[in-house]
Amino acid sequence: MLLYTEKQLDVAYRIDCKARTQNDEPWITREEFRPLYETLIEHFMKAYESDKIFSDEVPEYLLNSVNDLLKATLTLE
Predict the structure, then answer these.
(1) Residue 77 confidence (pLDDT) above 60
(2) What is the C-alpha separation between 17 and 48, in angstroms, rounded?
(3) Where in the chain are the domains?
(4) What gap in Å lies between CA 55 and CA 73, rounded to an integer?
(5) Average confidence (pLDDT) over 3-29
(6) Is residue 38 within 8 Å of residue 12, measured between CB atoms?
(7) What does DSSP assign to residue 1?
(8) I want to staple 25 with a disulfide (CB 3.0 to 4.6 A). Which of 20, 43, 49, 71 is the partner?
(9) What is the DSSP string of 15-66?
């Protein structure tokens, strides 16, 4: 189970919406974005597994890394 705040989800969702707008793509709903966000966080957590950060709550620095990745690389085709 992953625990994150709705505010953290909102920040990532706004990043996604901005990227979709810049790429002239339609927005998805926040609830459609939620499973994408959770999957991305899970992948990041697996990548950091060697640091033994697994817990119920996602560390803030990990969420910041996810948001930085979204800002830097999100492209839609």
Answers:
(1) no
(2) 27
(3) 6-73
(4) 27
(5) 87
(6) no
(7) -
(8) 20
(9) HHHHHHHHTT-----HHHHHHHHHHHHHHHHHHTGGGT--SSBPPHHHHHHH
If you search the block for the tokens 């119920």, which residue do you land on?
Answer: 56
Which DSSP symbol is given to 2? -
Res 74: pLDDT: 53
Q: Specify the pTM.
A: 0.65
Which residues neighbour 36 within 8 Å (Cβ) at sequence distance 6 or greater?
16
Cβ atoms within 10 A of the Cβ of 41, count? 20
CA distance 64 to 26: 25
d(C-alpha 45, C-alpha 53), whole Å: 7
DSSP, collapsed to helix, strand or coil, labels residue 3 as strand
